[in-house]
Design a protein that fits this description.
Number of helices: 16
Strand content: 15-25%
CATH topology of the largest domain: Aminopeptidase
CATH architecture of the largest domain: 3-Layer(aba) Sandwich
Radius of gyration: 34 Å
Largest sheet: 6 strands, mixed
Distance between the termini: 83 Å
Strand order of the largest sheet: 15-14-18-12-11-20
Length: 625
């Protein structure tokens, strides 16, 4: 044994063997074992306590974060009411709006802070279990970015209304828009990013409350994204379009949606709108009678000529807007006007009585020359139905329509100079363009290129992908489309062949016109059909716009085989037929198509008439080939 071994030897215990010694290993001590056991217990307790503490921390901070988000939501609700037409707080000051935005931003920032850190990060990374924590973190982060980076510049871009301020509202709005243009462009980009982040959050977790919150936030982002895109675009084009650099003139058409056309309704009345430094005024008003002998001289291409030359859109004013692609109608109107008057216009705008109703809800009623009050609730009925019953004389009835347009437009001009009404007007304009009831075209190519990216350009999109568009043009020369009901069901099948898939489209059209009691001007049949008709019977040119590259395999009308004409417009396959629609009847058209496959909901074309289209879209699952 070495000296070290001897030094560490322990005395022999009884029964351990003669002369034996037991050597202990260096570093081991009975006295150290209780300490090690205590350390092990502490470690085990910590391993158990940390998740519990983390869970408690997440629960407590999550509760506080929820309170903060609810507080932010209350501020945002108050902000929305401050710019909502007809609400009690609609006249709220810009300073008050900024206070609400700052308060919402502070609450959202605290919610974001509460859901960050190691506990939340670790919990959100757990497989399956962590999904709702990731959703909560993502929602709080989205709220923080929206309130801090989007709402503040958006609220700041609105002009500040001053007490008793009834002048210069549009000019002030124009100045504010120019000043905040870079902020609005950045804010639109942030909204696009946040929207993508929200849609990337888990859709289905073990916590239904988190799933509902994500779904609500996704819907809000889907509504906010186009609003911010519009605001960003307005910041870039509105200053020049409203005459910031030079005076502008626009042809403004009031579409009569009782007689359907591709862009909405026949252009029954019109005005010339002048814009200079944000100040708007009307130079003149007129109706379609004035344009009967006018002609247009514009080349819209071979495709347009093939589809519409038979209807003479450049020689017959009433047929100038049969195509749903508004830039075609706008270019025709600009050419008509130049050939008729020698004057150039810088663009064209189309509105209808339903849009005027939205604006009148903000401004209050307008009064016509004969004392008739036009309000949000009666303007469509007065202009599209009651006026026909009141005047049998065509000339007097058209003059009445122009007077209604002049009264409503005058009320608008007074309102745009009142900064207190501007927020509500902007909301109304946004809602109208979303429904296709406001369309804008610029004769300046750089502006038009930007406008065509947004719905209010009225442009028929020419990109590939699923598409569903029902377009009707009145072919009888009547005003019976006031009583027209339309529905469309688009349903994609699951079977695929060579990369395409079956699509079934069901179109139902109903004529609610009464069999008697309507003025002759409403029921007039200018088409002079060879068959017998009754007052109230209508005839429509019905066109279905399918996706690019779609083929029709079969069509039926009321269950019987139907032959449809084929055409192409801006790449879309178009299938059309003339349809007699007797008073009190309904017709059902079914189209069976083969379309290039795409796992997405189709883009829906909105043709604005008196009664909105009822559309149902049923995309299928994945295509298996």
């Amino acid at each position: 044994m070495t000296e070290q071994d001897i030094a560490t030897a322990e005395p022999r215990r009884p029964g351990s063997g003669r002369g034996a010694v037991r050597l202990r290993r260096p570093g081991r001590s009975r006295e150290g074992e209780p300490g090690r056991r205590r350390a092990l217990k502490i470690t085990l307790l910590a391993l158990v306590a940390l998740p519990v503490a983390g869970a408690v921390w997440i629960g407590v901070t999550g509760l506080f974060a929820r309170w903060e988000l609810l507080a932010a939501q209350r501020d945002l609700d108050a902000l929305r009411h401050s710019v909502t037409p007809g609400s009690a707080g609609a006249a709220g000051s810009a300073q008050h709006r900024q206070q609400m935005v700052r308060s919402a931003a502070e609450h959202a920032a605290r919610a974001h802070d509460l859901t960050t850190g190691p506990a939340w990060y670790s919990a959100s990374r757990l497989p399956v279990v962590g999904a709702p924590f990731g959703t909560v973190r993502g929602a709080a982060y989205a709220a923080d970015r929206l309130t801090g980076e989007v709402l503040s510049p958006l609220a700041g871009a609105l002009p500040a209304p001053a007490p008793n301020d009834h002048g210069g509202g549009m000019a002030q709005a124009l100045t504010s828009l120019q000043q905040h243009a870079p902020d609005l462009v950045r804010a639109a980009r942030v909204v696009s990013e946040v929207r993508a982040d929200v849609h990337g959050l888990p859709r289905s977790t073990w916590l239904p409350a988190a799933d509902r919150a994500r779904a609500d936030l996704a819907r809000q982002m889907d509504r906010l994204a186009p609003v911010m895109a519009d605001a960003s675009l307005a910041a870039r084009v509105l200053p020049s379009m409203l005459g910031a650099q030079e005076e502008r003139r626009y042809f403004l058409a009031f579409q009569n949606i009782a007689e359907a056309r591709g862009t909405g309704g026949v252009a029954g009345a019109f005005a010339v709108l002048k814009a200079r430094q944000g100040h708007l005024s009307f130079e003149r008003f007129g109706n379609n009678t004035e344009m009967e002998k006018a002609k247009a001289n514009v080349d819209l291409g071979a495709e347009f000529a093939a589809r519409y030359d038979g209807n003479a859109p450049a020689r017959v004013w009433a047929n100038s807007n049969m195509s749903p692609h508004f830039p075609y109608a706008a270019r025709l109107w600009a050419s008509y006007w130049r050939n008729h008057t020698g004057e150039r216009v810088d663009g064209a705008i189309a509105v209808d009585p339903a849009m005027l109703g939205r604006l009148l809800r903000v401004t209050g009623p307008a009064r016509m020359a004969d004392g008739t009050e036009l309000s949000a609730d009666n303007v469509v009925d007065v202009t599209e139905r009651a006026s026909y019953a009141r005047y049998n004389d065509v000339a007097r009835r058209k003059a009445y329509f122009v007077d209604a347009a002049r009264a409503a437009a005058g009320r608008m001009m007074a309102a745009v100079d009142d900064t207190r009404l501007l927020p509500g007007l902007l909301v109304a304009v946004h809602d109208a363009q979303r429904d296709g009831r406001l369309k804008v075209w610029s004769a300046h190519p750089a502006e038009q290129q930007l406008l065509e990216s947004r719905p209010y350009s009225g442009a028929l999109p020419d990109a590939p992908g699923p598409f569903a568009g029902l377009v009707v043009n009145n072919a009888a020369g009547s005003k019976l489309d006031y009583y027209l009901d339309r529905s469309l069901v688009w349903e994609a099948g699951g079977g695929c062949t060579r990369g395409d898939r079956p699509v079934t489209v069901t179109v139902k059209l109903a004529n609610r016109a009464p069999a008697s009691g309507l003025p002759g001007y409403v029921t007039l049949r200018e088409d002079r059909p060879a068959y017998r008709t009754r007052p109230g019977d209508n005839r429509l040119l019905v066109s279905y716009y399918a996706g690019v590259g779609a083929n029709l395999t079969e069509a039926t009308l009321d269950g019987h085989p139907a032959l449809l004409a084929f055409g192409v417009e801006r790449g879309h396959s178009v299938f059309s037929l003339n349809l007699e629609l007797p008073a009190g009847s309904s017709r059902t058209l079914v189209l069976h198509l083969r379309e290039p496959h795409a796992d997405s909901t189709p883009t829906l074309l909105q043709q604005p008439l008196v009664t909105p289209l009822r559309a149902t879209l049923k995309p299928s699952g994945a295509c298996h080939v």
